[in-house]
């Protein structure tokens, strides 16, 4: 019991993931307070507010973070908000663009009027300070080279004062930089969505009211999807995640029983 | 002279950037903005440097038939293929990131699944590692084990189905003991960063000059 071959563990985990995904069983999702706070922040903004989405992840975190981005974009468009997208991780740009364009199509939104994508600029901290002072210092044009002043929704957007909410989708430490500069220095309202492994880093910011809400991991995405009443990748993955967690806990229990028997023998 | 000039530049730029946080008004704010734009430009060039270095190292490996040169060949070919698809999409479609452009197909069908697969493998390693390493050897280890198991069960919907208090317990662990530990770590990191930055600005730490 204390020495199950790793191949068997891998097979069990693979089955725990594949079978629930194939059977498409759905479990009820309870919404946690940090996600509810994130949802309420977005819902309470007056229609027509500018929301800055920052894509701070790349394809390695796509299965966990893309459902979250899609849910938040849907909510923003549903509430008739204006979406500005930027990217701090160059490899994540197409993921953001893909989600932005598909959600905009769903809600019949037009480019330049309801949403823009400004693309990637190097130098995270410098870009964040630049957005706080004058966005045109770093983004004179959008990702395709169209001048910012020729995009109707951007004419009155100059700095943090004109951005009602920042939504950072994080797979690393860029969320910390947003809080430390955009919130601490410029008073920017922030909601952070992140991979489950990064989420614990953001709890101190939530308690200190430096951010408005946290959406952690695929579970967070499922909670947000529950709130906007749109079943997506988050809810679809919950049964697989539940079964896998149970399997891991069972393995830990079996391992410890085996360990206790071995210790008694010695 | 070769040491003194970089030290003076580091001191002046570091000092002005810090000053900009307390005095955001011009001229300090303006100087800070200019420095940050320079930083972003230099940061952009590091990417070019990275590509040049990568091509240089792997080309040499292929030419000299060093062990594992096949992987280097795949890397160079993949790089060239990406460049070609990108240029083709940019020229033909006018927008590299147009949803039906070949570059987006290339990105979504090859790069995304490969990257996601690499990261997803963690699930298998974590399961195996948890089984082997999560043992109740000491009181502290037992505490960690119980807390970990409670968070794992409380953070998935099945936890709520088994017992409605599991999510509440998981939330409590995340918001009280976890946060206390995290805050301690964050304060420690911040103090370390302040000390290191001051040592560099004041010229005490000079290893970056070597």
Q: Can you tell me about this structure?
A:
The complex is a heterodimer of chains A (266) and B (210). Chain A is of the alpha/beta class and 266 residues long. Chain A has two domains: 1-26 and 235-266; 28-230, HUPs (Rossmann fold), CATH 3.40.50. Helix content of chain A is 49%, strand content 13%. Chain A has a six-stranded parallel beta sheet with strand order 3-2-1-4-5-6, with helices on both faces. In chain A, β1 (50-56), α3 and β2 form a beta-alpha-beta unit. In chain A, α1 packs antiparallel against α9, α5 (124-133) runs parallel beside α6 and α8 (217-228) packs antiparallel against α9 (233-265). The longest helix of chain A is centred in the C-terminal third of the chain and has 33 residues, at 233-265. The radius of gyration of chain A is 21 Å and the shape is elongated. Chain A starts with 5 loop residues before the first helix and ends with a helix. Chain B is mainly α and 210 residues long. Chain B is built from eight helices and no strands. Chain B has helices spanning 4-22, 28-63, 69-93, 102-133, 139-154, 157-162, 165-175, 177-201. The two termini of chain B are 14 Å apart. Classes of the chains: A alpha/beta (266), B mainly alpha (210). At the A-B interface, α1, α4, α5, α7 and α8 of A face α2, α4, α5, α6 and α7 of B.
SSE blueprint:
The complex is a heterodimer of chains A (266) and B (210).
Chain A: H1 6-23, H2 33-43, E1 50-56, H3 62-78, E2 82-87, H4 93-106, E3 115-120, H5 124-133, E4 165-170, H6 174-183, E5 190-194, H7 203-207, E6 213-216, H8 217-228, H9 233-265
Parallel strand pairs in A: 1-2, 1-4, 2-3, 4-5, 5-6
Helix pairs in contact in A: 1-9, 3-4, 3-8, 5-6, 8-9
Chain B: H1 4-22, H2 28-63, H3 69-93, H4 102-133, H5 139-154, H6 157-162, H7 165-175, H8 177-201
